[in-house]
TrEMBL record:
Origin: domain of life: Bacteria
Organism annotation: Nocardia alba
The protein's name: Enoyl-CoA hydratase/carnithine racemase
Biological process (GO), any one: fatty acid beta-oxidation
Family that this chain belongs to: Belongs to the enoyl-CoA hydratase/isomerase family.
InterPro entries documented for this protein: ClpP/crotonase-like_dom_sf (IPR029045), Enoyl-CoA_hydra/iso (IPR001753), Enoyl-CoA_hydra_C (IPR014748)
GO molecular function: lyase activity
Coiled coil location: none
Alphabetized UniProt keyword annotations: Lipid metabolism, Lyase
Length: 255
């Protein structure tokens, strides 16, 4: 880890990952990219951590996107395939992630927020896919078609115009809104709700959503049923109904 990305492994099973370059609006410079790769790896391989919350330091920006100065200095054309650490793309995560968007999420900032499973945003946050304004492209936005309507996606990519957090919420990009200063708390509350579920059930639910976006109806049903077998065969699958019948909080073992 480096100080460009902070990692807080909380006792409750939540990892808080913070992009820590507020002076550059948390842009995705090389040190931030390296720190984020390390943070995701640490989260994935720590069995005590079940949900990650990704946020940015400061109150102006979640992440302003790629480092344009680096692109100029290196004469960058097509970014290397492994340049950015993105769940479901360049890295594989088996546990839920939440973006806590505290300010502007532009270009690469939108990209990393989009790559998380869920999104909580400040009412003062703004979102934009600005690549058309700087002659770049946004192939990473392709999965957005599974999140928002086609014509809204088209307008966002063609104009590069920013939208408010409220608008992002209305079109389905954002799950929950929070007042400025309360975004992390709202994201932690959402994470805590996830933690109350059985770990294998949460994993199967996450897999089901992603399989449904990758496949047609029949294939997705078959794949989701196969993904659910481990959950159904677990001790937790017996503990849940037993706890309900006994009117008590279940004790999850994760197996």
């Amino acid at each position: 880890m480096n100080d460009a990305v902070l990692f807080d492994a909380r006792a409750d099973g939540i990892a808080v990952i913070t992009l820590n370059r507020p002076e550059t609006r948390n842009c995705l410079a090389a040190d931030v990219r390296a720190g984020l790769y390390a943070a995701w790896d640490r989260f994935e391989h720590d069995p005590a951590l079940r949900v990650a919350v990704l946020t940015g330091a400061g109150d102006k920006a979640f992440c302003a996107g790629g480092d344009l100065k680096e692109m100029v200095d290196t004469g960058m054309r097509v970014p290397p395939p492994e340049m950015f650490p993105l769940p479901y793309d360049t890295i594989e995560l088996s546990k839920p992630t939440i973006a806590a968007v505290n300010g502007a999420a532009f270009a690469g900032g939108w990209m990393i927020a989009q790559a998380c499973d869920l999104c909580v945003a400040s009412t003062a946050a703004t979102f934009a896919i600005t690549e058309v304004k700087v002659g770049r492209s946004s192939p990473w936005a392709a999965p957005l078609i599974h999140m928002i309507p086609q014509r809204i996606m088209m307008e966002l990519l063609l104009t590069g115009a920013p939208i408010t957090a409220r608008r992002a919420y209305e079109v389905g990009l954002v799950n929950r809104l929070a007042e400025p200063g309360a975004v992390l708390a709202a994201a932690l509350e959402l994470a805590a709700e996830i933690l109350r579920g059985a770990p294998l059930s949460v994993r199967a639910a996450r897999d089901t959503v992603m399989l449904a976006t990758e496949m047609g109806r029949s294939d997705a049903l078959g794949a989701a049923r196969a993904a659910a077998v481990e959950c159904y065969d677990s001790a937790d699958a017996q503990e849940g109904p037993r706890a309900f019948a006994e009117k008590r909080t279940p004790i999850w073992l994760g197996r």
